[in-house]
Structures are given as structure tokens and as C-alpha cells.
Specification:
The complex is a heterodimer of chains A (335) and B (266). Chain A is mainly α and 335 residues long. Chain A is 51% helix and 9% strand. Chain A contains 13 helices and 3 strands. In chain A, strands 2-1-3 form a 3-stranded antiparallel β-sheet, with helices on both faces. The two termini of chain A are 36 Å apart. Chain B is mainly α. Chain B is built from 11 helices and 3 strands, in the order H-H-H-H-H-H-H-E-E-H-E-H-H-H. The chains are: A mainly alpha (335), B mainly alpha (266).
């Protein structure tokens, strides 16, 4: 049933594409919950101008770039389609980059709702702009007071506590990860999907992506293939020269000797770690994203205000929406 | 008459005091630009508003300086200038965060110090030697401008665009991601690994790696640097008007400063 539904939407989409390819292909995506706040701003997080800067003008620039690249009609279809098609196409890099950025920015914004929706008569003002002095403030230890805006959905709450220890620890990890991004990027909450006979969803992670990066591992698989291609080419070149061939064989002998030594069990580089990660056939399902780019906070919070901005983002997370994104949690194997 | 010994001791002493005075320098501050008061009041005409200038220079520079002070205080880096810290940490992965702030301080200063006080009255032009070099590398000056701005515009994310004079005194335009720095190939950060890279770029990375292992030096020096960081233009222009910002920067470049950076054989 679900399958046929997907096929149905796909074919109708391709019909739409062929129509759309006649003119401008992409437009700024609609986010219902945000678009109705365009004139007022996202209460407690963004002024109207701040929202314009964090979403509308940005989305417009990504859309412009997408349309510039897709004059030949090659980039029809949804953002997801473009991302999953072009992650291995360096020639069409700009398509991947802009589709990915647009998708991520939209995803992050869709996680948010105005603070304090139940008590809408009360105004939640933006915090006063931080100054250089705020960088010197030590961490505030407030053990007794509970954090606000915690998830209410029991399934989500339990899963977070099982994965990170407690909600406080999760919040700290998530916001600090976002804090550590210095240019463009997103901090994500993801559910790990292990591809076995049936898909297994057991553990949640926090991870960062930089610039136009995606939280799934397709791109790192592409890098692996590139690496393999490069090394095969290099080896072939080496073996052409008899002297180099001899040296190469010596090197291989040495390597074989090391095979059983302790050294070989270490993962030496990020590349190797990624290869191993890829080999285990894991995927990450994004659940929540936080936009860490200065574009998201510069207007309303200033250069020093990233921390205040992230605190307000936490307050604005719509946990019901996040909970609705969760896959069915797999039973943990009891040994 | 002072004996040779006492003289040398007093020289040594004065030298030591001056060194220890300098080594007290542990708090980094924002340098004052020549046009600072003008720009603070009026902004940079046709480029940044006064608020935009405050964010891009005063606030961002003070943000990086404070972060750098916090990260280096009490370490053997604390008496070094941001430029020295940048050079010391450029090959050290575990000090990437320190490198970030040091490199940003230098890049931002390098950028702002090559802008004229008012682009409307900008009469500076590249000197004959520089024009000759540019024309021999990029065909024409127009072509160079086009290429420079196009590369800046196509940068995905934050970064810097530089005109470099390499070891052979040839010119190159290079685009650096984030805090990338022109002084060391390994810190050019000119390959964006979050987007699909091609084989040539992968091989470039491999070459950087082998150069680093065999301690190959980099003699590149920057002539002109332009900021493509959000802190510089997003407040005044919005993310979708990057092209406009870059065009305006071009009109504000002080070529008298750039001319002085070009290598001349005396």
C-alpha cells in the first residue's frame, strides 16, 4: 500500500517536473507554521527582520543558485531527490550544495514554534544583546532548578535518557556541539539505523555537519570510492616501473608482517574511521536540527550572542513535531 | 668609565626588561584602524552601514581577540601576537580552535586595512608592475576582476578570497573555506569536503599530506584578501545579496596598500 503510494507520488512528480522545467524550477519552500509569522517574527526567538535574515533571504539565495544551475531541466524534483542523486557528481556540485543547504535550513526551522504558545497574550521579548563581557562569564551551576521546555512525549523522553543519560546531558551536548561550529553548519539529533534483515533503530546520537554536509553516510561512501580509485591508479603507475615495483613489494612484505601487531588495530585517520563506519551499513535518520550559522543569529543576537540564541532555540523546540518524526524503536536485545 | 663587562650586562639587562615587558602581552585587543573614527560614525560609504561596520570589525575582532586570549592564557603561546600564534599552530590539528581565532584576527585585519576611507573618492590604482603581472596571468585586468569576484561568489559557506604571490612570484586567486590562511598550503582549506570533490581535489589533499610529512615549506604571500564571512555582509546585505556586496568591496579596495605588498627586486 505504502509502496504503491510512493510510486504514485513519484510518477506525478516527474510529470510536474516536465511542466516545471519550462520555467523557473524552484521557489522558496513553504513552511506553514513559519510563514504565518512572517510579519511578526517567531516570538521569543526572532524579530520579523531576524526571521527574514535567518530564513527568507537565505532560502532565496539558495533557490536562485539552484535555478541558475538547473536551466537544462536536470534538477527537477524534490530537494531530497537532488541530494540523493548529486552527492557523487562533482560537476554538478553547486546543485548538491544548494539543495542540501536549503533542505537543512528548512529542516531546522520546521523544528521550531513560538515560545509559550498556550499563553499567547504574554510577550516574550528577545534577550538584551550580549557584549564581550558575556564571553568571560563562567558557567552557571544551577542544580536545583529544572530546565524548561523538556519533551513531554514519553517515548522520546525515555529514548533520549537511554541514549544520553538525562535530558540535561542531552541539552548540554546538543547546544555545545552547535556552539563549536564556527562557520556554517548544523547540530543534529539523529537515530542510528542499522541495516539488517529488518531495520534496527536503537540508539540516538548528536552529530555536527559543516557547510552543506548531510547527516547520512552517502557522501562518505563517495569519498571512499574516490580514495579506492586513486590508490588503484597510483598502484598501477607504480608497477610500471621495475625499480618501483621492487620497492613496492618490499613495502607490502613489511606491511604483512605488521598485520598481527597491535598497531594495526588502531584507527589512524578520520578517513579510516569513516570507511569502517560505512562498512557497518549504518544510516542516520535526522530527528532535530539546530542551525549554527551566523546567518541564523547575527541580526537579533549580534556577534557575541550565539549562546543566548541557542538557549532560545532550545526553548522554541516543538517537541511534538520532533516526536512525530521518530521511527519505531526496536526492542533492545536482552542478554 | 664603564667596563666592558658592566656595559654588556647593562645591555643584557635592558634587553631582558624589554623582552619581559613584551611577554606580558597576554590579552589580545582590537587594533585601531586608520579610518576607525570615520567609519564608526558614518560607516564605509556604499559598502557598510555604521552598524554593519561595528559588527564586522569592532565586534567580530573583539570576539576573536577575547576568545584567543581565553584559549592561550597561561600557555607558552600567551606572549605571542595573533600572527605568530597563527604560524605556530598552523600545522597542529589539536590546536585548531586556537588557530581559528588567530587566523581570523589576521585575515580580518588584512582585509580592513586595504580599504579606502570613502569608495566614492577612491583614486587608487594598481601600479604598473602589478598590472603587468595581472595581465600576464589573467589576460586582462577586467578578466581578473571577473574571476576574483566569481570565485568569491561561488564559495559555499564562509571564507576568504585571496590574491596570492607564490614562491615563483606568480599570481594566483585562491578561495579558502572558513579560517583558511594564505601562508601555508595545509591551511589553505581550499577543498570543501562536505560537497562532492573530484579526483584532482582528492589528489591535491594527498599532496598536501605528503608535503606536510616531508616538511615542504610554503613561500606564498598574500597581496589582497576579501572577506566572505557572514559577519561582514549578512547584516547589511542579507544572504541573497552577496554579489552586490562583493561588487562594492571591489570599488573600495585601496590599491596603494596592495601595491606596497607586491614583491620588488631592488
Amino acid at each position: 500500500m505504502l509502496r504503491s503510494l510512493q510510486i504514485g507520488t513519484k510518477s506525478s512528480r516527474s510529470v510536474l517536473n516536465s511542466i516545471a522545467s519550462q520555467r523557473s524550477l524552484h521557489t522558496v519552500p513553504k513552511i506553514e507554521t513559519i510563514d504565518e509569522l512572517k510579519d511578526t517574527g517567531l516570538k521569543g526567538l526572532y524579530s520579523a527582520k531576524g526571521l527574514e535574515s535567518a530564513w527568507y533571504s537565505r532560502a532565496q539565495s539558495y533557490v536562485n543558485n539552484l535555478n541558475k544551475e538547473s536551466t537544462d531541466g536536470v534538477a527537477g524534483g524534490s530537494l531530497e531527490d537532488i541530494i540523493s542523486t548529486f552527492y557523487k557528481e562533482p560537476i554538478k556540485r553547486s546543485l548538491y550544495e544548494n539543495a542540501s543547504l536549503l533542505y537543512n535550513t528548512k529542516f531546522a526551522l520546521e523544528c521550531l514554534a513560538p515560545i509559550n504558545t498556550f499563553n499567547s497574550s504574554e510577550e516574550v521579548a528577545l534577550p538584551p544583546k550580549a557584549t564581550v563581557k558575556d564571553l568571560l562569564a563562567g558557567p552557571v551551576l544551577n542544580r536545583n532548578s529544572a530546565i524548561s521546555n523538556v519533551p513531554t512525549n514519553n517515548n522520546l523522553k525515555d529514548w533520549l535518557v537511554d541514549s544520553f543519560g538525562s535530558i540535561v546531558e542531552f541539552k548540554t551536548l546538543l547546544l555545545n556541539s552547535a556552539m563549536a561550529i564556527k562557520g556554517d553548519g548544523f547540530a543534529w539529533l539523529v537515530v542510528e539505523k542499522l541495516v539488517r534483515r529488518a531495520d534496527v533503530y536503537e540508539t540516538m546520537f548528536v552529530l555536527n555537519t559543516y557547510n552543506c554536509g548531510q547527516p547520512n553516510s552517502n557522501a562518505s561512501k563517495y569519498l571512499d570510492d574516490l580514495k579506492l580509485f586513486h590508490h588503484t591508479k597510483e598502484q598501477e603507475n607504480k608497477l610500471k616501473d621495475p625499480e618501483a615495483k621492487l620497492a613496492y613489494e618490499e613495502e607490502q612484505k613489511k606491511k604483512n608482517k605488521l598485520e598481527y601487531s597491535f598497531q594495526n588495530t588502531l584507527i589512524e585517520t578520520v578517513d579510516e574511521a569513516k570507511s569502517i563506519h560505512h562498512a557497518t551499513k549504518r544510516q542516520f535518520v535526522p530527528i532535530l536540527a539546530i542551525d549554527a550559522s551566523p546567518k541564523a543569529y547575527l541580526h537579533d543576537y549580534g556577534v557575541f550572542g550565539k549562546k543566548q540564541y541557542l538557549e532560545r532555540v532550545w526553548e522554541s523546540i516543538d517537541w511534538d513535531k520532533i516526536a512525530a518524526r521518530l521511527p519505531q524503536r526496536s526492542e533492545k536485545l536482552q542478554l | 668609565m664603564m667596563s666592558w663587562k658592566s656595559l654588556s650586562q647593562s645591555i643584557l639587562k635592558s634587553h631582558i626588561t624589554s623582552v619581559s615587558k613584551r611577554s606580558c602581552r597576554s590579552i589580545h585587543t582590537v587594533p585601531t584602524l586608520a579610518n576607525d573614527s570615520l567609519w564608526t560614525n558614518k560607516g564605509i560609504p556604499q559598502l557598510l552601514t555604521s552598524q554593519g561596520y561595528k559588527l564586522a570589525w569592532n565586534d567580530y575582532q573583539s570576539y576573536c581577540a577575547t576568545q584567543l586570549s581565553l584559549l592561550t592564557v597561561g600557555t607558552d603561546l600567551e606572549h605571542q601576537t595573533p600572527f605568530q600564534i597563527m604560524l605556530t599552530t598552523q600545522g597542529l590539528a589539536h590546536q585548531a580552535s586556537i588557530f581559528h581565532y588567530a587566523s581570523q584576527l589576521h585575515n580580518n585585519h588584512f582585509f580592513f586595512s586595504a580599504l579606502v576611507n570613502d569608495p566614492n573618492t577612491n583614486t587608487s590604482v594598481p601600479n604598473r608592475e602589478l598590472v603587468r603581472k595581472i595581465e600576464s596571468t589573467f589576460q586582462s585586468f577586467e578578466q581578473f576582476k571577473k574571476e576574483f569576484l566569481a570565485k568569491a561568489e561561488s564559495l559555499n559557506g564562509n571564507g576568504w578570497v585571496y590574491l596570492i604571490e607564490n614562491a615563483d612570484k606568480g599570481l594566483e586567486i585562491r578561495v579558502f573555506n572558513n579560517e583558511g590562511s594564505p601562508y601555508f598550503y595545509n591551511r589553505n582549506q581550499d577543498v570543501n569536503l562536505s560537497s562532492p570533490i573530484n579526483l584532482a581535489e582528492y589528489e591535491k589533499l594527498q599532496k598536501y599530506q605528503s608535503n606536510l610529512n616531508s616538511k615542504v615549506k610554503d613561500w606564498s604571500l598574500p597581496l589582497l584578501g576579501v572577506s566572505v564571512w557572514d559577519y561582514t555582509y549578512v547584516y547589511d546585505y542579507g544572504a541573497d545579496k552577496k554579489k552586490e556586496y562583493l561588487e562594492n568591496v571591489w570599488k573600495a579596495i585601496n590599491w596603494d596598500v596592495v601595491n606596497k605588498r607586491v614583491f620588488v627586486l631592488n
